[in-house]
Amino acid sequence: xxxxxxxxxxxxxxxxxxxxxxxxxxxxxxxxxxxxxxxxxxxxxxxxxxxxxxxxxxxxxxxxxxxxxxxxxxxxxxxxxxxxxxxxxxxxxxxxxxxxxxxxxxxxxxxxxxxxxxxxxxxxxxxxxxxxxxxxxxxxxxxxxxxxxxxxx
Length: 153
Hints:
Elements: E1 2-8, H1 16-20, E2 30-33, E3 37-42, E4 45-49, E5 55-58, H2 59-68, E6 71-81, H3 92-97, E7 100-107, E8 111-116, H4 119-131, E9 135-141
Antiparallel strand pairs: 1-8, 1-9, 2-5, 2-6, 3-4, 3-6, 6-7, 7-8
């Protein structure tokens, strides 16, 4: 059974969160951003943190942050919920039992891992990664999932 998706993105400035999240109806979710380290790029320099602290934002706010300026992603831990935020999600089993619908983790500026409960959306994310020419695209299954924690740290 498919759990998610992994791929790599270029280690450079861009709008990669916007690109990755294209198939997701961002406005339909509340987004929990945890221990993230990524920067808004201004005048070809890292300027300020994309998300200054761990926070919960609505889809409109997330969309504004990822579309207004280029950014440089280092570590990203974003989780999407339709309604109430459930307790801490540490493992894949926690994810399954929670109200969380989508997890996006990015490590070391390049390595993206996505977990998604909606299989149609997961297929759309796979196709989207292919269209954006991301590399090393692969489905995560129960047989090849090496993540022990759903965290970028």
